[in-house]
Design brief:
Elements lengths: L56 H4 L13 E5 H11 L3 E3 H6 L8 E5 L9 E4 L1 E2 L1 H9 L3 E4 L2
Parallel strand pairs: 1-3, 2-4, 3-5, 4-6
Length: 149
Amino acid sequence: MKLHNLKPAEGSTHKEKRLGRGEASGKGGTSTKGNKGGQSRAGYQRKNAHEGGQMPIQRRIPKRGFKNNNRVEYKVFNLGQVDQLVEKYGFTEFSLENLYINGLINRTDLVKILGNGELKAKVTFKINAISDKAKAAIEAAGGSVEILK
């Protein structure tokens, strides 16, 4: 076997369909595109939501509500949950770094503490937001709160 003898396996290659190259090609005239209409013309491009003249689905379905772009989403922890986490992970400081390191929040999450439940441990909090009830309960347990910007 030599380089000049090499050729593809039998039946593995196909002849290219040469459209619009005259009647002798067997695909002359309309070049298999039918007679008239957008799809037979040069430069035709199918539009994503086009439904052939039928009212498209994004126009048939009514709009609902709105999305507030300025909404601030917090990852919420109640005092009861905080107490369990302090026991489980041995936190002395309840901060964003500690929560992230232990896989409880994502890097960009904001944390808010709510006052549901009891806090027995003395813990320092460094978080983004807190309710008044939770702040009072933390200070009653001997802890402190620092609000981060």
